[in-house]
Write a structure and sequence with these properties.
Helix content is 38%, strand content 15%. The protein is an alpha+beta fold. It folds into two domains: 5-57, Orthogonal Bundle (Arc Repressor Mutant, subunit A); 62-145, Alpha-Beta Plaits. The radius of gyration is 20 Å and the shape is elongated.
């Protein structure tokens, strides 16, 4: 896939995040000699071509006061996991929901969802609420709280952009 110098410069400019200003695309454009519309259109084209596979926010929940972060793991019957997963994912307080294979006999869980809260009691109450809302109240589950936070960041392309390849 061929990338122009403009593409590489734009990728390098956005990979560490957008500037925290009222018009971030205009700010990037000023730095690159592009209009705001050109920046937006270029990001759209790079996404459509598959160069940029994901474009979204990475938040530090702990910095925002959400100290109780838990992965709720579920043992859902295989014939119901899709439907229950969709119901869980639709809840406002579930930030991530996905299916993974079980690893029996030690790991019976096949559905995972992330819930963030300011304290453990809140997260546990939300997990209970989610179980009822998703129709999984009778399914075994476990609430696994994070004990450490690792740095989250998006894909890194600076080496590629700096090399011009």
């Amino acid at each position: 896939m061929e990338l122009t110098l403009k593409d590489l410069s734009l990728i390098a400019a956005i990979q560490d995040g957008l500037p925290l200003v009222k018009d971030p695309y205009a700010e990037i454009g000023r730095k690159l000699g592009l209009s705001e519309a050109e920046v937006i259109e270029s990001i759209k084209e790079l996404t459509e071509r598959g160069v940029i596979r994901r474009f979204g926010l990475v938040l530090s929940h702990r910095d925002l006061g959400y100290k109780a972060n838990a992965m709720v793991v579920w043992d859902i019957p295989d014939d119901a996991v899709g439907e229950i997963g969709e119901r869980l994912a639709a809840l406002d307080y579930v930030t991530l929901c996905y299916r993974r294979p079980r690893h029996l006999p030690d790991w019976p869980y096949n559905l995972f969802c992330m819930i963030h809260g300011r304290d453990r009691a809140t997260v546990e109450a939300l997990a209970d609420e989610a179980a009822v809302a998703a129709g999984a109240a009778d399914c075994p589950r476990n609430v696994l709280f994070s004990t450490r936070q690792f740095k989250q960041r998006g894909a890194r392309y600076a080496k590629c952009a700096a090399a011009g390849t």
